[in-house]
Amino acid sequence: MRFDDDCFQALQHLFQTEGPVRLGEFLQSRKGHFDNPADGELAGIAAGLFPLVAEKRYPEVVQAVVRASEKHPALPSHLLNLGLFAAKEAGLHGEMAWAIFRFAEAAADRGETALAMEMVKKIYVFAAGRDAEMYYKPDCLVQVAALLEKIARPGLARRAVPLQGPPKTKPRLALVTPVMLEGTTAWAKTALQFVRYRDSAACDVYEYFADETVNRKQYFLGHQFVRSKTSEETAPRAMAELRAGGAVVKCIPPTLDWAEGSRWLAEELERDGIDAVIFQGNVETTMMWMASRWTHVPVKMTLCVGVNMYQTGQAATIYMSNRLNLEKEQAFWRPEWGRQVFMGGGADIAEAARTPPLNRAEFAIPPGAVAFGMLSNDVSVRVTEEYLACVAKVLKACPEAVFVCMGSGDVRQQIGCMTRAGVLDRCRWLSWQHMNAFASLKMLDFYYNEIPIGGSQVLIECMACGVPALAMVCGTKHHETVGADVVGPEFAIMEKNPDAYVARAVEWIRDPVRRAAAGKAQLARARQLYSAETFIRDLCRLALELGGREKKVLGVGL
């Protein structure tokens, strides 16, 4: 008798129909029937968890599953799933991260590549986004990269696929993006800018979309993944613009599993004769990570999005908005991971200048009111009680102010928070994200960056509009520091001091001259550091330079 998922379900059914006493008697009677002692031990653990779940003692369930995973890394999937359910209910997401990690290691050791890749993705989807240590600590990140290297090992020996299709007349540069969302994310905007501003005389461009959570074969834990639409479905206008701009656009077929999709991307880059590929990815984007490791494209580069790939074979990692990331990673960076390069970018400043603002009257913002607020594609996570406490204090101090919350996500908790604070009447909840962020941002008199997890790309776009932005340093992690780094120390509170953050907002509300001066100064900073046109041209120039160097080493010319 084995303790597999079928056995787990049978035990759970016995508990639900006949109770814990009968379940205990049954296990005692079957004690000598399990194939090995580990199976009997796991069955006993599961039997002890069922009453805890029924009584909603979720922290105890999480602790028990974590302890079990330390001794038995390859937990039966339903036992691990029970721990994840309890962690979700108790808000203990981070505690389960290492249990998932150990399960992924066990899957990799068994050669189950797709399952191991899915588990790495789930570490970040489920746990690491909730402040788990492996998302931020360098030694933990390197451990995850080492796990991905173990998963990638069987595919490293694959041979390159020869060029197919028309012969090349120019170098071919490629950008790989997780998913396209009509320009509402930093990587989506970079994908559009890559086509708009590349030097078409110098290179041809290809765009690939991983669509990582779309219709991939799910082994279990399905409630952690919401099946999403493909990039073609979520961003038809953006995809059409890419093609109209001369890019060759491709998506990983959604019928492939995680390993098959990674191999398809690795081979497709070779079939298309790509000379240099730029990944907008990190250790979280497992299909992208694998494809980068498996492909034989001569030059591979990565755009830093907070948690880098940390793998051999990269020519360069480009830090786009936060110099602090580069400085932090220098402490453990390895030469085989390639060059570290800071290259600020990128808001489309020309587009910002020609975009008119939305009509504030449509959103019941009174004439003469000072509107401040934020915009995010994850309002339910970014707009915290800590942030709203600051907003409420600002509103109480300044009767002429209105807070505007723009973005997607469930805001019922946020509305409740402002109701209790007595300032709901001066809040506007635009629970959508306008297709053109510039038009939305231009409604604001100034941007008040979220804490402790603040935006970065949206601040760059504010500055490009001439809309001033405030930010505060809330810690040492990427999202706690990047906002202050973007706006500059003159317009940031350089320590975690909510009272000072409130006071600065009140000053800006009461002093329009000061706000206007800040807007001009930040627009100048955007032109200097965060021009999309400059960024894309510099990025392509670097890719071509590295590609040319690689070709010379190989004895051929571009």
Commentary on this structure:
The chain is an alpha/beta fold and 558 residues long. The chain has 23 helices and 13 strands. It has a 7-stranded parallel β-sheet with strand order 3-2-1-4-5-6-7, with helices on both faces. Strand 1, helix 8 and strand 2 form a beta-alpha-beta unit. Helix 2 packs antiparallel against helix 3. The longest helix is centred in the first third of the chain and has 25 residues. The chain is globular. The C terminus is likely disordered.
- The shape is globular
Major sheet, described briefly? 7 strands, parallel
Low-pLDDT parts are: 219-226, 552-558
**Strands, total number:** 13
Strand order of the largest sheet: 3-2-1-4-5-6-7
Share of residues in helices: 40-55%
Radius of gyration: 26 Å
Category from helices, strands and their pairing:
alpha/beta
What percent of residues are in strands? Answer: 5-15%
Distance between the first and last residues' Cα: 63 Å
Given the structure, what is the number of helices? Answer: 23
- Mean pLDDT score: 88
